[in-house]
Amino acid sequence: MTAHAHARHTKRQVIIETAERLFAEHGYDATSTARIAHEAGVPSGLVFYHFATKLDLLLAIVQERPSPSEVLRSAARGRTVRRRLQAIVATMAEELEHDRAARIIVFREAQGRPEIAERAAELFAEATETVADVLRGADDVVAGPDRVQAAAELVVSRVFLDTVALGQADTAAERHEAMIELVADSLTSPGGRAQQD
Fold first, then answer.
1. DSSP 163
2. What is the DSSP string of 35-79?
3. What is the pLDDT of residues 96-116, one digit of tens each?
């Protein structure tokens, strides 16, 4: 990458980071591109050089994130359902908290913007499928595929709810541990298989 290309990339990233912060703090509609440019320390025209519209900037914030599957697969260590769940839940909570501004934007803006709602649904589906796949690979899982899928949906929903929607990441650890125990028991007990069949 040439020095000029690197500078353009850096300015683009500064614009995205500034817009993300402002959209999370004030909302998409209440944040002008002029304010984004001013706080990013760039000319207004540079925002439109990188993004044709303010909506394109919003979409870049939502779409240019690490893939949930990459993050969750790398975290899922351990041979048992319980160990895998502990790693997944801790990693999800940490990632969602670290990426809180973007998640707030997705949660808020999905209500009236189909493009954002679609991307949010894609991220949820990807995270859920990854968690289900990781759980199916545990040595002690005996539950059928439908129960594993339901468990994955519960885990992803609960961690997202606590971390993003309710903003209670710091007080959620006890609830998460109870959920992990419940889900692990459900997926590893022979009764779970009998109920599934």
1. I
2. HHHHHHTS-HHHHHHH-SSHHHHHHHHHHSS--HHHHHHHH--SS
3. 777 777 777 887 888 888 888
